[in-house]
Every structure is written in C-alpha cells, then in structure tokens.
Amino acid sequence: MTPPDNLDFDHVAGDDVSRHFGRRRAVSRITFTARSGTILGLLGPNGAGKSTMLAMLATLLRPTSGTIRFGSLDARQHGAALRSRIGVLGHDLFLYPELTAHENLAFFAGLYRCADPAAVASRALVQAGLADRAGDQVQSFSRGMRQRVALERALIHEPRLALLDEPFTGLDDASTAALIARLRALRESGAIIILATHDLDLTEGLFDEALFLRDGRVLSAVTRPEQLRSTYRAVMGRG
Amino acid sequence: MFARAVWLILRKDLTVEMRSGEIAYTTLFFAVSCILMFAFALVREGRAPEDGAAGLLWIAIAFAGTLALGRTFERERQSETLRALMMAPAPRPAVYVGKLIGIVALLAVVEIVLVPLVALLLEARVLLERPFWLAAILAAGTTGFAAVGTLFAAMLIRARTRDVLLPVLLYPVIVPVMIAGVRGTAALLQPEVDTAILGFWLALLVTFDVVFVTLALWTFEAVMTD
C-alpha cells in the first residue's frame, strides 16, 4: 500500500477493539478517543489488557476485531507508515546496554530518518539532563537514568502519539517529577499521550481522561480529571 | 533508506560485538575445539581421511554459525530491542539484511582462523594454495547458511525452546548448501583443480544464495508481524 502524503493526525480512536490470544480475551470491545494535547490514562491492575492495548496502538499487534484509526487513517492499512509518527516506551527500555547513551539515541534517530542524528541525540541528552554522561555505556547507568534515556529514545523523532507503559516503574521521586514535567511539556506541544499504569498515586493530576480496565474490558471511562480518584476507588474496590 | 538502515544496524551490531567480544570469542573457541577434536579422533599416524578436511571444515562452520545466530538474536531479546527495531519506520527486510551481513562478517573471521588450522591438522595445505577459489566457495556457502539461519533465528526469538529448535529446523534446510560447500571444498583438495567441477558447485551455491535470500526478504516482514 502506498503511504499517504500526510501522515499527521489530531486524534486516535479505537472502535470496538478486541484482541484474543487463542481462547483468552486480552482486550474485549474497547472504544475510546484520544485527542491532540491530552493525556489519556489506561488504568487497571496487572493483566487488565493495558499492554496489549498499547501494542495494538503501536501497530505491533493487529486487533482480532474492531478498528483503530489515526485521524482518518486505518492502522490496518497504514500501520507501517504510521510508525514514523508513534513513539513507544515499554516495560523494557529498548536500549543497547553496550552502547553509550549518545550512540543509542543517534542509532534510533538514524532509523527514524532524523536529519542530523548525532545533533538530535545530543539535544535529547541535554533534555534528559544527561549531557555529561553522553559517552558512558548505558549498562553503567542507574534505573532512573536509563528510563530518562529510554524516554528520549521514544520521543527522538517528535512523535504525534506517545505510548508509555508503566513509565514510573523503579523511579525515585526526583526522576518521577522530571518525567511528569516532561510529559506535561509534551502535552503542551500538541502530542497525544496514552499512558498505562496501575498506580494512580504517581500520576495524580496528570491525566485529562482515563479508561479503567479489568480483564480486558472497560469498567469505567472518566472524562473529568476530578472524578479520577473516586472512580479509581470504586473500580479497584470491586475486586 | 533501505541501504542506510542496513548500514545503521550492521554498524550497531559490530560496535556492540567489538565492545563485548562475546559472540566472536565463544564462536571461535567452539569452532577451534571442534576441529581439534576431529583431528585427534581421525588423524592416524599423521594421515587424515581423504577429503575429510572439507567435511570437517563445514561441520565446524555450521556448528559455530548456529551458536552465533542464537546469541545475536538473544541479545536483541534481552532488552526487547528487536521490538524497537520493528517499531521503527525502517523497512523490516533491512533489519534482516543488516543482521545477515553481520553474521557473515563474524563467520568470515572464524573461517580465517579455521582454514589454516584445518590445513595444518588435517593435511590439507593445498587449500592455502588456492585462496581465491576457497574464498569464493566459503563466501557463497556461508551466505547461504546465514541467509536461512538469520530468518529462522528471528522467527524463533519468542519461542521458549529456541535453542533446541534452531538447529532442528535449520540443518535439514541447509543440507543442499552443506553438500555443495563440502563437494566444492573437496574439489579444491585434489592435486589438479578441475575448474569445471568447482564452477558447478560454486554456481549451485550462488543459486541457493539467491533463492534463500529472496525467500527470506519476501517472508521476513510477515514472520515478524504479530
């Protein structure tokens, strides 16, 4: 399929999206819309289907049924082309431990066709506050430092859609605050951010909207941030 | 973009390998151990079995290559970096080609050490007198082996039993490459080189290479999706 001229989009929408692995339903009939300049939270306990949902949004998994659209573009038809507008930060950090922070970022900047990968990588390291460690191998970094490099790797090509899976895992308070500030700045720049987490405490005040998932289904959708806490208690309390 | 992506992946793999040396050292050690064991077992009173050097050289290459293939993709699995490669807008066949060239380069280093060892221990010094023909046979055979192996190693990256499955799936498919490689190398061991026979085996190897690489490029995108 020939990629469309304009790959940009101002919203991502899932319509009745399901994904089954054999007889197990990882995600079941989820409908949602995430708009430019907002952060959508996917909240739920482990095994709720958050990571599967993110993998489908990243076009790495195909829905068993239902459609995911990036603006007017269908993920099933334009998935390969759309990947240039999507950034993913997963459970694993997607970094090569033997390469330096700069080499890692320059490598991915090159794959994402950034004009000057070395300069882009240097700027990203300044953004991460790790410019002085640019020449150090990633395997010598702490978890928090690796997470900051991984976030910059995910955002190296200035994606329209950023998908973050449990990005606060293993971070100390300072790193968590830095990550939240980075996500807020990203939202202000007009990106669509979808963040999956099981921990609302760390993300208090960050989400504009949220979906509460359990066993692959949407238990509740919250469109007003002030409802998040009460809905979280109610939904998680159902056990 | 295709060539650029291939170069980026190849350069990254070589940089990682030069820093760790993990695959090169283990593969080389394993291949040299194989040849030493074969030499101790088969050479009697200074006489090696006729044409044995050709078979033993290719067995060592196949065993060492299988080890290298497994480790190369295991490295991408440990930090889930293969997923990041799949997410990038680079053409997926470029990932395959970058990995393939990296494996061939690594095996070339192993062969540079193995060939003199085989020549010395298995009475095959004549191999060293025909370096261009030998290089052509080795290059074509190694490419055919790595073309199939890289595809299978990538396919099996999520399989729990990948270490067992890789040789079980790979060896039956590369039997034609092994036969052509062994016969071509055996032809080089004759006192007088029959260029017609050598040309035949070399042409056969190149044909296998074209078929295997084409099939792998055609299927790689599909096998790496979902």
Main attributes?
heterodimer; A: 239 residues; alpha/beta; Rossmann fold; six-stranded mixed β-sheet; four-stranded antiparallel β-sheet; 7 helices; B: 226 residues; mainly alpha; globular
The succession of helices and strands of chain B, N to C, reads HHHHHHHHH
- Helical fraction of chain A: 25-40%
State the end-to-end distance of chain B: 24 Å
Mean pLDDT of chain A: 89
Give the beta-strand count of chain A.
10
The coarse overall form of chain B would be globular
Termini separation of chain A (Å)? 45 Å
Query: Unreliable stretches of chain A, pLDDT < 50, 5 or more residues?
Result: none
**Largest Cβ-defined interface:** A-B, 29 and 22 residues
Main sheet characteristics of chain B: none
Classification by helices and strands of chain A: alpha/beta
> What structural category characterises the helix and strand content of chain B?
mainly alpha
What is the CA-atom radius of gyration of chain A, in angstroms? 18 Å
Approximate helicity band of chain B: over 70%
